[in-house]
Amino acid sequence: MFGAGGGTSSYKEAEETDLIILWGSNARDAHPIFFHHILRGVRSGAKLIVVDPRRSSSAEFADLWLGIDVGSDIALANAVGREIIAAGLIDSEFIGRATVGFDAYREAVDGWTLQRAEKVTGVPAAAIQELAHTYAQAPTAQLCWTLGITEHHNGTDNVFSLINLSLLTGHIGRWGSGLVPVRGQNNVQGGGDMGALPNKLPGFKNVTDDVERARFEAVYGTTLPAENGWHISQMFDAMERGELRSVYVIGENPAQSEADATRTRRLLGGLDHLVVQDMFLTKTAQLADVVLPAAAGWAETDGTFTSSERRIQLVRKAVEPPGEARDDLVIISDLAAHLGHDWGHPTAEELWDELRSLSAIHAGMSYQRLADHGGLQWPCFDESDPGAPFLHGRLWEDPISGPPAPFTPVEWVPPIDELDDEYPIRLTTGRRLDSFNTGVQSGRFSSPKRWGESLDLSPEDAVAYGLADGDVARVVSRRGSVEAPVRTDRNLRPGLAFMTFHFPDQVDTNLLTKDAWDPKSGTSEYKATAIRVERAEEPR
Amino acid sequence: MISRVEKAAIDHVLGSEPIGWGEVARAATGGRTARGGAALRARRHLLLPALQAAQEAAGWVTPEALDYLGDRLGVASADSFGVATFYDLLRTTPGPRVTVRVCDDIACSGASLGELGDDVAVEPVSCLGHCAHGSAALVHVLGLPDTVVAPVTPEGIRLAIEGHPAQIEPNETGGARDLLARVGSVDPTSLADYLRHGGYAALEKALAIGPAAVIGEVELSLLRGRGGASFPTGRKWSAVSRSNADTKYVICNGDESEPGTFKDRVVLEGDPFAVVEALTIAAFAVGAEKGFIYVRGEYPLALRRVGGAVVAARGAGLLGRSIMGSDFSFDIEVRKGGGAYICGEETALFNSVEGFRGEPRSKPPFPTDVGLFGAPTVINNVETLANIPSILLGGGKAFAALGRDGSTGTKLFSVSGRVREPGLYEAPCCASLGDVIDLAGGPIGTFRTALVGGAAGVFMGPDRLADTMSFEHLAALGESYGSGAIVVFDETSDMVAVVRRIAEFFRHESCGQCVPCRVGTEVQQEALERFLDGDATQRGILEDVDRVMTDASICGLGRTAASAIRSALRLGLIGGAP
After folding, report:
1. B369/chain A closest Cα distance in angstroms
2. Closest CA to B229 of B383, B400, B425, B377
């Protein structure tokens, strides 16, 4: 946000804030560790508001739940913004000092009356108003979101619509007030920080920035491409066009995790060469020409993880990896040697120190300091820098240092996959507490709460389709169909269905989903699929 | 689906606020919004009353009722099931139309119930507080209020099942008449009669002299708590009054469950307005606006009497806003216990009121700092509070003059077992054990031993008859008179059966939260059985488990669970000479 690819706040802030908003996030199930911090906040008296199409398990803890229509987030956010302005609850001083573009924003949201938003989102106007007033009047507030915001064709715009709200109210850059995109894995943040993004060098420097690139080239002793690479959706498009013929996949299972799985598998299967480096023989690995067995990222190798609060933590090797599995570092170094480059066998710490010489925000974090402090939060510019519990405190300096934060007006666009008479039900996908992504890692552990895949329907819809719990339904989208047992869930309203993608071997949910992706982030629209439901067989 | 009667019963307790989830809320908002969170959690304290209402409606707590409560209170069914199963008086399996729970505790003998129908279940139960009658039974009939039959006769049981219970003859009371002045002479259902007997003069005086002076009198009186721990009441009140907290609570602990004890029942049944008035004075003194009177569920008459007193006082402006025209506002809620001995422990009682399992909390923090709902709380025993009006009217000094050192005022003793006139006796300080037994007409047969303080107390032999029943004297010996229960045994008494019953009692009543008590009370009972079967080596086990429970348990239950057995061994009441 505002040039830095990370959440602004510390977990601890969720424990000490006055208001927590979970928008498009079922943290109770999907981010249970972060939810513990939220619960501590709630126990200390923080209000909790949840925005989610489903009355999720997180919503059960909430003071107020708003059950919006899938994909109407911008309509809701713009109406909240308009209401805050109309009610005179904006932080004018903050807006004047620290932001630009307020007038354009005000104009853009002016049409989003509570009544119009009620029509588009389905949420009663009074509840929208309460959300607006509560957020604006809270002394401090954490606005948290996850994939319910980002896994849309316009996910980036969704995020902007929320950032705008924080600028209106000054809920940014202060202890307790911030924007929190919660990460789904222990080290998603670290992957981005290290430059595993098509347009960024480590430390969020732009690939297209000649000066920055030259610095990296000098240290790496090589020439780097001057243009942005492809993100994953573009890669599959390039495969489709025949431009991308060889793929090296490390620690990812796209054959099961990507939207529109039929297409994904066809494309992966048609490559000239596919290399997969993974701990497990995943579905993707089974398609590969070469599989490189990797050691586990924790316990079997040294290195660092970076959490959603930008905290870099050391992980230390405790045991030898089993069988032929080897450290990713060793595999890559050896591969380089086979390709004619002698990189030697650098240790994790040597590579980290190289990174520190290139990425200013990591410069102050020696392994020794990381060990001494139990992790540090970037930016940390030198070895006397204690790190940053929250970002953008500069916006509260008078005058501010650095550029002002921009409002980014965004307009609501409905989901690509429209509902009609043939596909009248909105399917949204998500996670359950005891499973992780495609189940490669979690599926081998038993859980008393795991019942496999199901098509979750409202009791009303189940009656309407003549389906009872356990009956097998055929779920048909414009892209494919799957069969799944029905489970009624009164936390769903009529017209809304839910599935996970935890059990792709049983039910290949992503055969249904839409591969329309957000041009700004490359994320696919997993959250909004139009389906119809049919009985698959006679009742048992 | 939940039945209409259960739903209506639960709704009556919970009211109709549109928060929570479930079919009603879902339909009302089209499944678009829901309210809960803090507003819902603030209603958790209604869980136990709601469970009790559900059981009264259906005869047991059905899974459907638990689910419905989950919707209305935001408490998961598994959680409320855990609460329901904590309490002996709640059942989570289908029950018969009639349940007769017959006391088989230390002071009661076996009783003949007569012929009972197929729809009647008979279950044993711990002390029902009618020890002076020698036998007692609690009768539940679906659709009827609970009743107690004491002493137990086939005719009495039959009448109770038919819904026409006979009135229980009041216990013998005697001795001094300070605390019990009105018991037996005042109409406990009439506020007017209470006023005629001098009622509410103390509150009037309190309002006139102000909170600080009230606490001053209580401190001067040197009154000590009568629940068993003997903590100075004035110090409790003064600690809570000094707190700046916005919310404070006062609680009357009427969860009298110590076997052999029935003093609080007699006061609650015989002089309920005095308890209400005293709690109101406590609230005024410490600055509380809300109070609870928690009465054990096995005392249906006491519950009705004290409930009636609260309603009458409220109706007369003696509770509610601007009491007696002052700017002091206060109200009382009566809570019914669920049949758990442990809830007499003050922090367990807080958890019970808050809607959780009645498990004690670790202390510190003490209730005066962190009590009910986390607020500073005064919690006093019924008898303790009953002393307050006379302390205010006569002055703390005069009260203190009634005693010696720190043992001031009079003390109630529940005397039962092998005495001529079992009953409740008020003894001035510092009567001896023999004096108190003589108040009850003296022993029948040859005095062998008295169990002082109930199951958590100690056996005292003939050599102790001259010991004064004062706090200081007993504390110096590492003992106490506890709840003031005295059960007398003679040469005909089966001491092995009595000690067995005590071991069984603690095993049953341990809440299971802390290991020393949970495991210790089981090991104690099993080692005792082996010991009584002739295995002398078990004596060492009993001593070990005694030390562990006494040293390491969270609360007083575990810390006193070995006390009676230890003294029985020492006196040679079981297992031969020590």
Report:
1. 18
2. B383
